[in-house]
Amino acid sequence: MQREWTDQGREAWIARRTERRKRLAPPPAAKGPRDPQNPRKDSLDEERGEVLKNLFRVTTRTLAWELHKYPNEPYPAPLSGKLLLPLKYQGDDHAHTIRFKEGDDLNLIVYKFYSEPPDPGFEGLNYVTPNSFTPKRHEYLGPAPHVTGYRFSAAERTARIEWWDPYVQTLWIGRGTWAIDVYFDENVHGWVSRPRGDFDRAPDLESYMGA
What we know:
Helix content is about 25%, strand content about 20%. It is α+β, with helices and mostly antiparallel strands. Strands 1, 2, 3, 4, 5, 6 and 7 form a 7-stranded mixed β-sheet that branches. It has a two-stranded antiparallel sheet with strand order 8-9. The radius of gyration is 20 Å and the shape is elongated.
């Protein structure tokens, strides 16, 4: 999957990259003249690594919020549908579903659901308080579950949670894992994040992640 650009979005992305390169460019005497809009071929690999590193940092440190704490920012749903909620670490995220409407705050829905105790008879590994008489649902999702965002399917009208657990250094979704990936987009002649679903809100759409 690759990005679909509007003329305005493409020009805005290029302008942000050009401005950042101007700010970070070394003095001419250090590296010689360089056009900030046309990086040299031999710098592309270095730039790709920088974009990946910064995307990972922003996703896991800035966007991610700890599940047991009230979320700092709302996440308005871009469509109406079903939110898929796993009940265990790397468990089936079809285990529980909640319907939401366009504009509902998904972060708040998730926080409230996982702040409640599990259903009677639920069995699973509690990573936080194994002997607790009043456990919460989030305690079964790993040592330190963080929500980084949502993966939407417009066709299925679903939202899946993309998780990050810094304690075990794992990005997971449902029974599998996920990764941040980039590709060289010929429309902007630069490295951009690969969309992981519909209504993608990748951080490099707002800020240039390269050097």
